[in-house]
C-alpha cells in the first residue's frame, strides 16, 4: 500500500483525479496490476492496469473540499522480482506513477 496526504482547497465544483501510470509486468507471470484507490478512507475507483495508461475519476467536492485527505493505493498484485526468480530484488513492485493531477470539472 502507498499513501499520500493531499491538501485540497475549497472547491465549488467536483474534482477530477487523473493518474498516469505504468504497471510492473512480467510476461507469463504478472499480466496486470490491480489498484484500489481510496480517498479519505472511501473507495474511489478500481483500475486493472495492463499497460501504461491515463485514467480519470470524479471526486465529490463535498467529501474532500477544504481539507487534508489521505489517498491510499492498495495494490494486492504487487510482487518482488526475487519471488519470481528474476533477480535478488526483494522489493514489492507494482506501478510507476508518472503523474497525479486534480482539477475542477466546471
3D structure, described in words:
The strands form two sheets. A four-stranded antiparallel sheet has the order 1-6-3-4, with no helix packed on it. The model has no long low-confidence stretch (mean pLDDT about 90). The N and C termini lie far apart (about 30 Å). It has one helix spanning about 60-65; strands spanning about 1-5, 15-25, 35-40, 40-50, 55-60, 70-75, 95-105. The chain has one domain (about 1-105): Jelly Rolls. The chain is elongated, with a radius of gyration of 16 Å. The relative contact order is 0.36. It is mainly beta and about 110 residues long.
Topology (elements, then pairings):
Blueprint: E1 2-7, E2 15-23, E3 33-39, E4 42-49, E5 53-59, H1 61-64, E6 68-74, E7 95-104
Antiparallel strand pairs: 1-6, 2-5, 2-7, 3-4, 3-6
Keywords:
106 residues; mainly beta; Jelly Rolls; 4-stranded antiparallel β-sheet; 3-stranded antiparallel β-sheet; 1 helix; 7 strands; 4% helix; 51% strand
Major beta sheet, specifics?
A: 4 strands, antiparallel
> Class by helix and strand content?
mainly beta
User: What is the 3D shape?
Assistant: elongated
Going across the major beta sheet, what is the strand order? 1-6-3-4
CATH architecture, by name, is Sandwich
Proportion of residues in extended strands:
over 45%
- What fold name goes in the CATH topology slot? Jelly Rolls
Any low-confidence stretches, pLDDT <50, length ≥5?
none
Total domains, how many? 1
Q: What is the number of strand segments?
A: 7
Helix content: under 10%
- What value does the average pLDDT take? 89
Gyration radius over CA = 16 Å
Helix and strand run: EEEEEHEE
Amino acid at each position: 500500500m502507498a499513501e499520500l496526504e493531499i491538501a485540497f482547497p475549497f472547491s465549488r465544483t467536483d474534482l477530477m483525479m487523473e493518474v498516469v501510470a505504468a504497471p510492473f509486468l512480467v510476461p507469463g507471470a504478472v499480466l496486470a496490476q490491480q489498484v484500489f484507490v481510496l480517498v479519505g478512507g472511501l473507495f474511489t475507483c478500481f483500475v486493472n492496469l495492463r499497460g501504461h495508461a491515463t485514467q480519470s475519476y470524479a471526486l465529490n467536492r463535498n467529501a474532500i473540499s477544504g481539507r487534508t485527505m489521505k489517498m491510499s493505493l492498495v495494490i494486492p498484485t504487487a510482487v518482488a522480482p526475487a519471488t519470481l526468480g528474476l533477480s535478488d530484488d526483494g522489493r514489492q513492485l507494482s506501478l510507476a506513477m508518472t503523474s497525479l493531477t486534480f482539477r475542477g470539472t466546471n
